[in-house]
């Protein structure tokens, strides 16, 4: 469900938004900018989704193994 919100900004900011983002895209731009700061993600679902990505998991494991080998080499 969407809700309407009235926000007051300086005229220069408004004109910059219209010129840069576009007149019909400002709401979406602001929502995407603000969302990470006010909506807490469902981390468990996000981690489960990442774990299902087999290529990403393979790449992450390879990176971790290389990193640990580098650390062991530095201390040894």
Structural features:
76 residues, mainly alpha, 2 domains, 4 helices, elongated
Content of β-strand: under 5%
Strand count, sense and closure of the main sheet?
Answer: none
Whole-number average pLDDT? Answer: 88
> What's the Cα radius of gyration?
22 Å
Count of distinct structural domains: 2
Net shape: elongated
Amount of helix: over 70%
Q: State the assembly state of the protein chains.
A: single chain
How many helices does DSSP assign? 4
In N-to-C order, the SSE pattern is HHHH
How far from one another are the termini? 58 Å
Structural class assignment: mainly alpha
- Poorly predicted ranges: none
**What's the count of strands?**
0
What do you see in this structure?
This protein has about 80 residues and is an all-alpha fold. The protein folds into 2 domains: about 1-40, no CATH class; about 45-75. It has helices spanning about 10-20, 25-40, 45-50, 55-75. The mean pLDDT is about 90.
